[in-house]
Design goal:
single chain, alpha+beta, 30 strands
């Protein structure tokens, strides 16, 4: 008869169950090696950087840590070194089963790497690491066999071990569920079928790991090491749909999906190189957007360290000029390119660009858009020398990019902006400050924009950081600092008094004709139908009631239609805005479910067709940040303007600041008017809609070439009036006949050194 067991897994006799040699082997390969693998991978992330992440969460670490701990417990039990309490001894078969499941999974996971590890052992001692899971599993099986062999009730202990195996598998699958749902949701979200795409977006919003999708937006190479995500990533979705095979998604595709799912741009969030270090996002990470026309992702180690704005405003000229000097530092291990989208003052134009090279400020050359980008690409990408490129990026937007910001060094450049003032009354105008709306660099909290604004007439601003003072020569000034967040979200305005009230000025530049500027009061004629296009994205949800309120305040008489950019699209034909039609439009906005980031491109194309080719018709696009231009629908907006003839007037109103990448960089889109935003959506839109209903009086500015005789005794204006005329003339030439007038438009932009849709610096 065997002796009575001291516990559920106790030995049958008092002597050691395994030899000293076996104990040493289990200690080395079952305890020390698996523990060392866990510690090294958790701290250095070797496998995560090269192949896949085997321990993406703390839960995975706990499960993996059970393997050496259980092996150590088995050594103590079999070696007769300790006697566990009854409750602990009874629970150990379950824990043993969990450890077996975990070690078996990781052994299979690392099995394809073992041939490489054998070779790596000859060159690097780290080649032993992939053998950790296999060694841990072998030790567990050995411990289990010996414990059961010595147990009085071995058959009764197999059931708890099996329960532990199931529990381990469930635990691994549960920990891997968010990553797996991220992979599955991503695969569905890129489907051309609307129903499947919406199912994928729902999965991403409710079940997936946003950080995992954010990581994939930078690099799709890395994979998590969970059973479900590997099954999906290696083609397991074919089990759900045998016709489909898993595709490799580019970072650009993932960025589109990220915006669709969460309504924010991937680069609006901190990149996933914080916390545990991923080398692929570290100091030597490759910048896939280098030299391109997109801002792309944030670059670690690239920071704005200095920002200075110097402006001169003239209320009498109704124009202003601002120079923005920016300096960047790069602490990463590679030379970097700084890229950003700048929102200009409404109607503004870049009229100067300089770059400091070896401490010397150098002026940029101007040329056709394609020519300057080609030259920049050759220098920035191929020769990797010191260029600066400034091109338009939609209505009142420019893309500025400079290379290199040398590793361990800095770069500094200047952007000069000429802009008209918005005439509120005959004796008061406002200037809207520019802002950074999209960027691939970081702005530390202690870095603010230093502002100095001068004028011959009184200045006033509601920006908290700007204080009034006196300038030399009896003028006025505002000076202080403005935080980047305030600059982008509030777009501070500076009120400028108009002194002499000159309604007619004549200005000339060194080159080009003499330009007469006339300010007059005009009464808006009754316009054609107004198509209100509302972005159905998540960021508009909080402003939907304000939009509905503004529409509700519009009196009857105007013809108004509505399109809400969503899936499915909401479309209401234009009709007299009264009675049931008005109530239908208002309620459609108020009751709509705004979600994720909607692709507004098909809706905008529909609005163009709905408005037709009548220039008296208008499109008002009410939108949130639009950071993503979708590759599959980007060409949709190319066809309607070409087919319907003259594009309707386009007005854009942003409920929140941010990039606007939906519209193509074509003249008809670049000429769109931005409705000023003052932080009160209902008030802003109500004022705009009153004007579009007709009958409202406003001050307008006209600029045209005149001869010496026509100029007469008109007062002299600044050369910036000529630049503003040239900017408008370029847009007019391209709108009339882009093919025929393009050379003339480029030559005009070059003469006046302007960045336009056909030219760059």
């Amino acid at each position: 008869m065997p002796k009575a067991a001291a516990g559920p897994l106790a030995r049958a006799d008092g002597g050691p169950a395994i030899s000293p040699r076996a104990q040493v082997l289990v200690l080395i390969f079952g305890v020390i090696l698996p523990a060392a693998v866990l510690v090294i991978e958790w701290s250095a992330r070797l496998c995560a950087e090269a192949f896949f992440d085997p321990i993406p969460t703390a839960g995975h670490v706990v499960l993996v840590a059970l393997v050496p701990l259980v092996n150590l417990w088995g050594l103590f039990q079999l070696g007769g070194k300790t006697q566990m309490p009854a409750w602990a001894s009874r629970s150990m078969p379950v824990v043993l089963g969990v450890s077996l499941a975990v070690s078996a999974f990781y052994a299979l996971l690392f099995l394809p790497l073992l041939p490489l590890a054998v070779v790596a052992i000859l060159f690097y001692g780290l080649g032993l690491l992939p053998f950790g899971p296999v060694a841990g599993l072998a030790s567990l099986l050995f411990i289990r066999s010996r414990l059961f062999r010595q147990s009085a009730d071995a058959n009764g202990r197999r059931r708890p071990v099996m329960a532990g195996l199931v529990l381990g598998i469930v635990a691994l699958a549960g920990l891997d569920m968010p990553a797996a749902m991220t992979r599955l949701g991503l695969q569905w979200a890129v489907s051309p079928e609307t129903a499947e795409r919406e199912r994928g977006l729902w999965v991403l919003r409710t079940l997936a790991d946003r950080d995992e999708l954010l990581r994939l937006a930078y690099d799709t190479g890395g994979r998590t090491g969970g059973p479900l995500s590997l099954l999906i990533g290696l083609g397991g979705e074919a089990l759900l749909d045998p016709v489909r095979r898993t595709a490799v998604h580019s970072p650009q595709e993932v960025r589109e999906v990220f915006y669709r799912a969460y309504g924010v741009a991937f680069n609006a969030l901190p990149p996933p190189h914080t916390g545990r270090q991923w080398a692929r996002f570290g100091d030597f990470a490759f910048d896939a957007d280098h030299g391109g026309a997109e801002v792309g992702g944030r670059i670690k180690g690239l920071d704005l360290i200095s920002s200075r704005m110097d402006a001169s405003l003239s209320g009498d000229d109704a124009a202003g000029y601002l120079e923005w000097i920016l300096e960047f530092r790069n602490t990463s291990g590679l030379d970097r390119e700084a890229r950003m989208t700048i929102a200009l003052p409404p109607g503004g134009v870049v009229s100067r660009a300089t770059l400091w090279v070896n401490g010397e400020e150098r002026e940029a050359a101007y040329g056709g858009r394609e020519e300057v980008r080609k030259a920049y690409t050759e220098v920035a990408v191929q020769q990797r020398r010191d260029p600066l490129l400034v091109t338009t990026k939609g209505a009142d937007r420019v893309l500025a990019q400079a290379f290199p910001v040398p590793r361990g060094g800095t770069i500094k450049f200047k952007i000069g902006i000429t802009a008209p003032l918005d005439l509120l009354t005959k004796d008061r105008a406002v200037f809207t400050m520019p802002a950074i709306f999209d960027r691939n660099f970081s702005i530390p909290e202690d870095v603010a924009h230093a502002v100095w604004i001068e004028s011959k007439t009184a200045l006033k601003s509601e920006a908290a950081g700007l204080k009034a003072g006196s300038a030399g020569g009896g003028g006025f000034r505002l000076e202080g600092t403005v935080a980047d967040k305030e600059l982008a979200q509030r777009r501070p305005q500076v009120a400028v008094a108009r002194g002499a009230l000159n309604d007619r000025l004549v200005a000339r530049n060194d080159d080009g004709p003499q330009i007469q500027q006339t300010v007059r009061e005009a009464t808006a004629a009754l316009p054609g139908p107004l198509v209100v296009l509302v972005d159905g994205s998540e960021r508009v949800r909080g402003h939907a009631e304000a939009v509905a309120t503004a529409l509700g305040r519009l009196d009857g008489g105007a013809s108004v239609g509505l399109i809400i950019a969503s899936e499915p699209m909401v479309r209401i034909e234009p009709a007299a805005f009264e009675g049931a039609h008005k109530a239908r439009v208002v309620e459609a906005v108020r009751r709509h479910s705004f979600a994720g980031g909607q692709d507004n491109t098909p809706a905008f194309a529909e609005a163009l067709k709905l408005a037709g080719g009548d220039a008296h018709r208008r499109i008002l696009w009410v939108h949130g940040p639009q950071p993503q231009r979708f590759a599959k629908t980007a060409g949709i907006l190319d066809q309607p303007p070409a087919r319907i003839g003259r594009a309707p007037a386009n007005e854009l109103y942003a409920v929140e600041p941010g990039p606007t990448a939906r519209l193509p960089d074509e003249v008809w889109a670049t000429a769109a008017r931005l409705v000023p935003s003052h932080g009160d959506v209902a008030a802003d839109l109500s004022g705009y809609l009153r004007l579009t209903a007709g009958g409202g009086a406003s001050l307008i500015i006209e600029r045209e070439p005149v001869g010496e005789a026509s100029a007469g005794s008109s007062a002299e204006g600044s050369s910036h009036i000529v630049r503003l005329w040239a900017r408008d003339e370029v847009l007019r030439l391209m709108a009339q006949d882009a093919g025929q007038n393009r050379p003339r438009a480029i030559a005009l932009a070059q003469t006046h050194r302007l960045v336009t849709p056909v030219s760059g610096a």
